[in-house]
Amino acid sequence: MAGKTKSMSQIKQLLLLKRQNVSNRKAAVQIGMDKETVNNYVRKVCADPLGIDGLLELDDPVLEHRLKGGSPAYPDNRFEEFKRLLPYLEEEMSRSGKTHVTLKLLWEEYRRDHPDGYGLTQFRYHYNQNALASSDKAPSTILKDLYVGGEKAFLDYAGDTLGYIDMHTADKVRTQSFVACLPASDYGFMLCVPSQSTEDFVYAITRFFEHIGGASRILVPDNLKAAIVKTDRYEPSVNRILEDMANHYGCVVIPARPRHPKDKSLVEDQVRLVYRRVYAELRNRTFYSLEELNRAVAEKMQAHNRKRMQHHPYSREERFLAVDKPGLLPLPQKRFEIKSYTDLKVGANCCIYFGRDKHYYSVPYHFIGKQVHVEYTRTLVKIYADGRLLKAYERDYSHGRYTICDEHLASNSREYRDRTPQRYIERCEKVSVELGRLVTLMFHTSRLPAEMHYRSCDGLLNLQRTTDPVLFRTACETAIEYGRYNYRFVRQLIDSRCAGVHQHDLLMPPEHDNIRGREQFT
């Protein structure tokens, strides 16, 4: 995989491992990345002023842009100094039976002389690695699984299925049984989901975390299609959605090796227990919804975890509360939502067309014609360009509609978009009192939508610029008098120079008692 650009989800997995003081070599093996590539990224991260915590808070495109250009590399001489001290450390530990010296005491002395040296975890790791390498025994005869509380969670699906009856079709619906196990306490969790898809797998993990009230530091899934894109003994490719979920909860994904059942033997045992204590006890019951089925499963799993273990004086739940619970990572405030990604081109209307929802979102006008990167979840749409966030929108599922930010539009576009009846009335009143009255009556007396008169207003304003002011005012007064509040009538009056408009006043007959006026007909 050397030489290929790594996804930021994978880089965040590396950052989480480094925050746990995992060595570069071990991190490279666990996340399936070339050792030299890991070294290069670690050097860039060490040189970055934000540090690991700051970089983890960045969105993926921003992080990629920050690391892509490269940072100055600073050599780390701690391991060279540690190698120089190894003979002294070995000699002191060989006499520990007499001197009662401990490795932690030696580390404290080491840190007094080397304040910038290794932390205790890395100090012990490098010492133990040296002791292991110099031992005559094979690793398989001296290594033993010792699980730290809250550190790992094994994940798998049961081979057999459960099901329920669909109340609308009366069909039997089969479900997949997600099983998780915390190895330090053997605490089990089970959830029935519709399928083994990535979405259902991630949903089941989030429900598992919420059930135990925290997140384990390491997830160990089997080589499922929902978790692993490409199976490999040494460098399995983890599904990007699963990596995003792990980054959200601050944990890392280290898949079990294919054809190595001992890597996840405890969850295999948990599946066998689930068959006996859940499947067998529910065999004669009928369920009519997935929720009803999962409620029954939760009751059986609770009884299973509270049952006294055969070779221990405590239950799995008691062991979980004592050992695993304190070691879990706190849950973030928001539940993880699956991210999807796409690249879209900004149209001439300053918007991208989000085809999934048939909806438009605005982008700053100087990005017209350029490609932007879009990340979206069920509730949010984020738009990036050149490694920076342009805008984050709440996702709108309205087909054919626009979500527009005024700052994104050019000045002429903003003016066009901000048209309202009141703005037209104010503009026309500044030109003349007569035009202001005409436009006010146009909007207030019409039954048509206000938008239908905007072009008439634009035409009147343009006509005013090229017409004699006296003639224009006369035409407006005449249009008001005749109740013809539109551009076409005013234009006809101006073209005729208002010929004959006031002749009716001259030709009116004199008032007479035998002649009825128009007031008689109103």
pLDDT < 50 stretches = 1-5, 69-75, 136-145, 231-236, 503-507
Number of domains: 5
CATH class of the largest domain: Alpha Beta
Spatial separation of the terminal alpha carbons: 92 Å
Structural class estimated from helices and strands: alpha+beta
Mean pLDDT: 80
Rg result:
37 Å
**What is the fourth-level CATH superfamily of the largest domain?**
Ribonuclease H-like superfamily/Ribonuclease H
The total strand number stands at: 15
Instruction: Write down the overall geometry.
Output: elongated
Largest sheet: 6 strands, mixed
What's the CATH topology label of the largest domain? Nucleotidyltransferase, domain 5
Q: How helix-rich are the residues, as a percent range?
A: 40-55%
Fraction in beta strands: 5-15%
